[in-house]
């Protein structure tokens, strides 16, 4: 184990500072905020304060450790501030952290769509932000989704590979295009209902609207997804949920939402 102990002010390590920096992707710029004592095998943190959006609306925290936090995002809430709306999941998480006397604000490691619900992973310690970002970029953070889609499906570890690009005729929409970025997902059917199916999708890449585009391409669009041809059945939002996240010690499954229950 490389880290002996860590808090908001310093880290004690068991190896060398160089190995710590390589493991956690610490850049030269980042090192300016650190003081290293090789004799005591200690790194002291001196990060500048940041102006951040804070919101004290309640937030469901499903997991928390020294440097990570997993929060539940309801539908119709942004993950990040878009410049027009200060009530975001990130602002609520930082309100929670501030009320609990945390020294640093959290930063979302990934995002999910405005109408999508479920788990969002945050980094709550700046020392580990680059490490988390790199693991997300290299797809070491496992993410599974569930969705209610139109019609009956029979997916059994069905691997879907699509090239996804922005639709130049509709800035809000993505399309499958030969010049798009490769997008890979694994589809499984969990249950068939009268006129829809509950499916599980593991994404191996992280393209914008990846699951929504691929579901539509299979002629089973997600319910309530009017952008991609999904039938509107209620006002509960896009029936897509970030259902399971696995990363290091984090292994969290989202609680069941009533809006996904069908007979």
TrEMBL record:
Every copy of the Pseudouridine synthase RsuA/RluA-like domain together lies at: 68-217
- Which InterPro entries does this chain map to? PsdUridine_synth_cat_dom_sf (IPR020103), PsdUridine_synth_RluA-like_CS (IPR006224), PsdUridine_synth_RsuA/RluA (IPR006145), RluA_PseudoU_synthase (IPR050188)
Instruction: Spell out where the chain crosses the membrane.
Output: none
Pfam families attached here? PseudoU_synth_2
Annotated protein name in UniProt = RNA pseudouridylate synthase
Homology family: Belongs to the pseudouridine synthase RluA family.
Q: Tell whether Isomerase is among the UniProt keywords.
A: yes
């Amino acid at each position: 184990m490389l880290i002996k102990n860590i808090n908001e002010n310093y880290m004690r390590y068991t190896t060398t500072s160089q190995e710590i920096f390589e493991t956690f992707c610490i850049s030269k710029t980042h090192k300016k905020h650190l003081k290293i004592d090789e004799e005591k095998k200690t790194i002291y943190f001196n990060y500048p304060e940041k102006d951040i959006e804070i919101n004290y609306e309640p937030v469901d925290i499903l997991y928390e450790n020294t440097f990570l936090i997993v929060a539940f995002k309801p539908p119709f809430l942004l993950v990040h501030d878009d410049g027009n709306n200060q009530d975001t999941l990130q602002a609520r998480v930082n309100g929670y952290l501030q009320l609990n006397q945390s020294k640093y604000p959290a930063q979302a490691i990934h995002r999910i769509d405005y109408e999508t619900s479920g788990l969002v992973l945050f980094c709550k310690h700046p020392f580990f932000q680059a490490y988390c970002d790199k693991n997300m970029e290299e797809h070491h953070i496992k993410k599974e989704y569930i969705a209610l889609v139109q019609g009956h499906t029979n997916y059994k570890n069905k691997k879907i590979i699509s090239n996804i690009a922005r639709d130049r005729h509709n800035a809000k929409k993505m399309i499958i295009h030969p010049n798009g970025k490769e997008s890979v997902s694994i589809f499984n059917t969990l249950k068939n209902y009268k006129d829809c199916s509950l499916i599980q999708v593991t994404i191996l890449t992280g393209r914008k609207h990846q699951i929504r585009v691929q579901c539509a391409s299979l002629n089973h669009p997600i319910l309530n997804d009017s952008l991609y041809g999904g039938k509107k059945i209620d006002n509960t939002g896009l029936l897509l949920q970030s259902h399971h996240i696995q990363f290091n010690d984090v292994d969290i499954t989202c609680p069941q939402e009533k809006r996904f229950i069908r007979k």
